[in-house]
Amino acid sequence: MKRRKSKTEDQQQAIEKEVQSNPLNFTGNLSIDLDRIRSEIGQNGDVHIREFKIGSLNARAALIFIDGLADTEIINNNILRSLMSVDDQDCEKNRNIETSTRERLSTHMLLIGKVNETSNIQSFDTAILAGSAGLLVEGTAIGFVLDVAKAKTRNIEEPLSESLVRGPRVGFVEQLSDNTALLRNLSKTQDLAINTFKVGTKIKKDLAIVYMRDIVDPQLLEEVIQRIQTINIDNLPESGYVEQLIEDNQFSPFPQIQNTERPDRVMGAILEGRVGILLDGTPFALILPVTFNMLLQSPEDYYERWISGTLIRMLRYLAAFIALFGPSLYIAFSSFHQGLIPTKLAISIAASREGVPFPPLIEALIMEISIEILREAGLRLPKPVGQSLGIVGGLIVGEAAVQAGIVSPIMVIVVAVTAISSFTLPHYSIGITIRFLRFVVMLFSAVYGLYGVVLFVLLLCTHLVKLKSFNVPYLSPAVPYQLSDLKDFLIRAPLSMMKRRPKLMHTQESKRK
Amino acid sequence: MNKQRMKNVWVGVILSLNLILLTSCWSYRPIEDVNFVAGAALDAEKGGKISSTLQYVVPHEKGGGQAGMSGHKQYENIKEVGDALEPIGWETTLKKEGSIFGAHEKIVVIGEELARKIDMEQLVDLYYRDIDIRGSTLVFIADGKADKTLESEAPDIVPSYRINEIAIQQLSTRMLRQTSLVVMLSKMESDSSFVLQRLTTEKGEVKFDGAAVIKGKTNKLIGFLNKKEIEGLNLITGDSKTGSIRSQGKKPVYFQIQQIKSKITPYVKGENISFHLNVSIDGRIAEDWKQSFNLFKDSTLKQVEKEVEKEADSLVEHTINRMQDDLGVDIAGFGNELRIHHPRAWQRVKKDWDERFKTTPVTTNINIHITDYGMIGERNK
Q1: ipTM metric
Q2: Of the four listed, A60, B107, B113, B350, which is most buried by Cβ atoms within 10 Å?
Q3: B36 touches chain A (CB under 8 A)
């Protein structure tokens, strides 16, 4: 008894010393440690601290967990039940030695898969806040982190933003582990590398980089990791934050990183030597580097046979052109270059514009802005309401505007065709870019006519040629010209012809086996 | 470094803004404010003056569901008199709002009197200088007053466009190939004679009737060809798509032309120039008024071919005679063939080619080939 007492005193002194020297570590004294935890997170209503005695060790212990995040069933059945049951034989055997306490706990008593140990209070707290249960035992200067987090996940569903007619009906979910599992599921190869990082200064989030170890260009990988490490922001609620913080040119209207909800798309990209980024808490994965033509491609181009894939892809390029230049060409032709319109069409345009009080630019702006408002309104409303809004807005307002003579019927056609064309773009973000640029080119054409449109195209080209995404030129393989990569540019060559990975990615392994 | 760069950016922004703000919709001209000129008619007036009639399209919105018929008059003719086309143009702007816009002008009709009096090149000078007016605008000569041809009683019709469409179709050998401003310029510049389509008005409606012959030396109208002569001319030039030839004889057989191949071969021997014209025509029997006729027999076919050949030959002969003896001009492109095949000889004669052509011998050989005679070969009485 005496010996023990003196030991306790020694311990007491040692603990005080340690608290002073290293305030972040556990002391081993349960009440002191608990007090500190209470003062840090315990004041929150959802933090539960359960004090009890470990039956076989006869030691006081406390279990800290968060209501709702931790699975109480596991806590009750796999932790508390085994810890609190009394077994006298064991009791005597391992009473005094600290190491054996740890060992016994993890080898005999904690009936769960993942047990981590930490001596740092801070990391102990964050683990608890992430859903784990924390276990402190009297006399042990170590906190056990028991992974009992309840998976807060939803079912895997077809992605809303990129639906396909043909292709896997699988989309990413919010849980990072589910997403990485989806990717693992798609490629059961050891070459698929998933590196996780912690990002965010205040709220730490898991971020995973996925790539093919034997394909990816090491320089690219290095660049990506370096840029991710420079992220310095308190919170990353969505992968859009990551995108904006690591992209090359934040003043460009063009997205330089692709986002997708489709695992097959990520898989396809990383097999081309690209890098995927997954962030916990969002179903949107990022793909980089990205080139302009990728944004007009859809996985269906590859799933369908190459002839139809090529045709649909060309159709999409055409649609992008119409979506960008439709109203501006109308403005240019109808108010500057009437001589370029076929005679009969010119006369019928003139007839339809008879009595319209606005110049073509204002007319186009009225229609374009109202259709953008309609689109935005339809987006925010619940689905059934959104549809009827489309009918009311598109049909009734359009028809009424023509009847009232505010806009000409031809303008309605132009705007409608433009809007429909912009819906064919397979990526929401490039769609927004083109919608924005459409207004810019409308102003250009209203000032200069076709000459202005040409000026705009020149400006656009100079910008695009300069733009790079992670050191890959944005317009490649068109500029700089790479003949072999053109097989997957405007056309989609038969699969048997596309035996090599894109040269612009500088992959380690150029042949697709 | 960075400061300098920012400065450069600002300079760039200000310059670009100037570019937009200072020009501010330069040459902006909304489509409803311009007057589309569909066609023009030029006539001679008293005192050596010229009158120009501009036909403006008046766009009306088509009534929905009524097959595009609105019942409105689709055009408006504005006539002004002056001593040149330019002041006349300005004069018309005093009468009608909006600027004159010539890019959709399709035809120019020149009155007979004016064409006889004034050098054609001088007359249409403005049309070549105006950047809006296209070189593809067609030129016609009107029988009598030109401004009559630009009128029509029918609703929903722009007369200029109707004339243009008929001219372009050129369905029959009885109609001349259309001549555009550019083609006319090349003829006038090379001093070669040429023909223009001739328009007449009958009961207020316009009709294509024959051709007007313009002499290359003077660029003035010297005479007309009738439809029959045009048939001959079309066979010489091979310029026609379809048409029919009547076989000689009391009761006719009509031969429908499907393809004409004509070749003019010039021969030069010293100072002597002669031409050989070879025309081969493929076609079918279109109508048969001879009762006892067995086309299953090769000999009958040959006989019909002969008869058609004779008629074609006389057509061609007549036209050549008309050109050489009567009008004294080469309008079928004999001179052009000479220029291509014997440039040196051409250099010698090009100065007064029309005079020279009068006495140049032309031999002809016409080949008719019947490819098809329909579903009836032989007809029982």
Answers
A1: 0.82
A2: B107
A3: yes
